[in-house]
Design brief:
- The protein has 338 residues and is an alpha/beta fold.
- The protein folds into 2 domains: 184 residues, L-asparaginase, N-terminal domain (Rossmann fold, 3-Layer(aba) Sandwich); 119 residues, 3-Layer(aba) Sandwich (Rossmann fold), CATH 3.40.50.40.
- The chain has 9 helices and 16 strands.
- The strands form 4 sheets. The chain has an 8-stranded mixed β-sheet, sandwiched between helices. It has a 4-stranded parallel β-sheet with strand order 13-14-15-16, sandwiched between helices.
- Helix 3 packs parallel to helix 8.
- The longest helix has 17 residues.
- It starts with 5 loop residues before the first strand and ends in a 10-residue tail after the last helix.
- The protein binds D-aspartic acid.
Length: 338
Amino acid sequence: MFVGSLCLLAAGGTIATRTTSEGRAVAADAAELLDAAKAFGGVAVDDVDARDVSRTASFAATTADVLALAEQVRAAAAEYEGVVITHGTDTMEETAALLAVMHQGSVPVVLTGAQRPFDDPATDGPRNLAAALRWAASPDAVDTGVTVVFNDRALPAIGVRKTHTLSVDAFHAPGRGPIGYVGQDDVRRYAMPRRPSPLLPSGVDELPRVDVVPLYLGADATAVEAAVAAGARGIVLAAFGAGNTTPAITEACVRVLEDGIPVAVTSRVGEGRVAGLYTGGGWDLAEAGALFFGDLSPWQGRIVLAAALAAEGTTADVRRRCRAWLQEAGAIPGDVDG
Ligand code: DAS
């Protein structure tokens, strides 16, 4: 099953935390994590090079931190046959998306983490790490791009979501995954994930500001106006249902679109794609030129829009880039014109 040498990048998260009198804090290093994973067998951990990348909780990380991590991943992918990253679960879906808009080539890049601390007697971390290493070392993982391995499942980066606050069954990719099962003795891939062409080149150290605006009963235009005033170059709506907005937010977004700032529509629902269906809501946004981001979560949509904005070009170029990427990612139908 094992195809060659792996690199483990330890980037903080609950998987590496111990409990202190002031709350959980990252304490275990990459070597300790690897050592603990040995108990779950199935992978030649002596062939894994372990590197410490950061000791942050993922809720405290910045986009620049994740771009720096992406550079380490790129370097490791040039050197090893698989790269595994231990990471906090809170923003793992955003890191997965950011790596996915950059990663090229056949080397699998696998994110994993834990819901329970390293010093919990029933911690899930070492088991998840052993599974992630097993998946990364398997021929089944070659060409799968970026994946998340958690609770015995391999999930595609695009579409993965944290779906439970505390349970060890914390990640799913509604409508898209799992793409594989990672047991203690066997690895099985059921499907190949979509692999769109890279949207973001390597070497970028910051992304343009893109803000997420949540929809809630009676929401007014304050958040949209504040985002623009703060310098947002794009706005992602976490809209109602299949992509609807309050009248105040619809009107504010139409104005924003007239000013050349892209607005991307996603849903706060958690599964399914958005569509411009209702007058006064999604229909009006579509007519005004908003981009409908398919089944992407608001958080992954924000990464995709920011990546599309990172390259030079007009608003029309950004729209074209987003649409092409979303089509290749299977988020929107292939016949949507740009
Ligand atoms: N919620 C924690 C975790 O599960 C903290 C973090 O995201 O770093 O890893």
